[in-house]
């Protein structure tokens, strides 16, 4: 069972794909009995009670950023997670199952230094986590035989140049952490040594590295720096999309059977062993 993008790698060039070997893997999968979906309607029509195997390829390349996603064409990460759990649970029965869900576009947005897209895809990932917990609570009350682990394989160079007021959610006129850095009491824009405003979110490296002075930053507004496609400023200039990974610790958390063994600081190589042990392997 696979849901995601990348349809071009399943189709031959004659069908608009990129396969040089001429194989049509979509046709081959269908012939082997796989349910197939290329859009939201076909995805919704997949009946877990009647489908043993399924593949959903909703875009030619990457899935859209959640901010750009057409909800009538592409299912959300949470929707794919719920459907996947239903499919696997019906097929595996008491034998159990393994599912990996990746919010992969968070990484892409951070490489592009478009913080708003990264944060919205993080929200989408958070919704997928909730969907997984809710679905498994129904199938395994109390998660007595289920372990859900949430983690990341690396961080990025995103930094916070101060902080925003805890207002709950960003909205027009209230950009929150996506806006300009402000004095917490007066609400006035904070400025650098040259008197120029700056955004709360920045990057250690990225494509928007100002050459010379930042005089043009005088025109920055909350609306400008909180726009969907705004590239936050960086300390070191990189090619477009070339922001790098960082080197700080990343989050790991767990819920369910065996979750008590996943806590504190862990070496990344320990995680596999803990998951394997929880699965009784």
TrEMBL record:
Positions that bind Zn(2+): 107, 111, 153-154, 245
SUPFAM superfamilies named among the record's database cross-references: Alkaline phosphatase-like (SSF53649)
InterPro entries: Alkaline_phosphatase, Alkaline_phosphatase_core_sf
Keyword hit for Membrane: no
Keyword check for Protease: no
List of residues binding Mg(2+): 102
Alphabetized Pfam families for the sequence: Alk_phosphatase
Gene Ontology MF terms: alkaline phosphatase activity; metal ion binding
Top-rank EC class of the record's enzyme: hydrolase
EC number: 3.1.3.1
Cofactor(s) in the UniProt record: Mg(2+); Zn(2+)
Keyword annotations of the record: Hydrolase, Magnesium, Metal-binding, Phosphoprotein, Zinc
Organism: Chromobacterium violaceum
Cofactor note: Binds 1 Mg(2+) ion.
UniProt name for this protein: Alkaline phosphatase 4
């Amino acid at each position: 069972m696979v849901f995601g993008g990348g349809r071009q790698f399943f189709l031959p060039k004659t069908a608009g794909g990129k396969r040089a070997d001429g194989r049509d893997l979509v046709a081959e999968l269908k012939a082997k009995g796989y349910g197939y979906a290329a859009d939201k309607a076909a995805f919704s029509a997949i009946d877990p009670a009647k489908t043993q195997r399924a593949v959903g390829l909703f875009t030619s390349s990457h899935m859209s950023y959640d901010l750009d996603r057409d909800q009538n064409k592409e299912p959300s990460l949470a929707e794919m997670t719920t459907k996947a759990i239903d499919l696997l649970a019906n097929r595996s029965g008491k034998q159990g199952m393994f599912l990996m869900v990746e919010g992969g576009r968070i990484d892409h947005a951070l490489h592009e230094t478009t913080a708003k897209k990264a944060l919205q895809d993080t929200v989408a990932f958070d919704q997928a986590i909730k969907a997984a917990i809710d679905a498994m609570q129904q199938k395994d009350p109390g998660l007595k035989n289920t372990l859900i682990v949430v983690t990341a394989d690396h961080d990025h160079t995103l930094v916070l140049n101060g902080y925003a007021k805890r207002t709950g959610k960003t909205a027009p006129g209230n950009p929150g952490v996506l806006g300009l850095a402000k004095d917490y009491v007066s609400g006035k824009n904070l400025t650098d040594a040259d008197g120029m405003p700056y955004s709360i979110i920045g990057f250690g490296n990225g494509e928007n590295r100002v050459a010379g002075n930042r005089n043009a930053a005088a025109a920055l507004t909350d609306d400008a720096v909180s726009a969907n496609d705004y590239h936050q400023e960086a300390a070191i200039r990189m090619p477009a999309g070339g922001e790098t990974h960082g080197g700080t610790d990343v989050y790991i958390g767990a819920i369910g059977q065996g979750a008590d063994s996943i806590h504190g600081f862990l070496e990344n190589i320990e995680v596999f062993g803990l998951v394997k042990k929880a699965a009784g392997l």
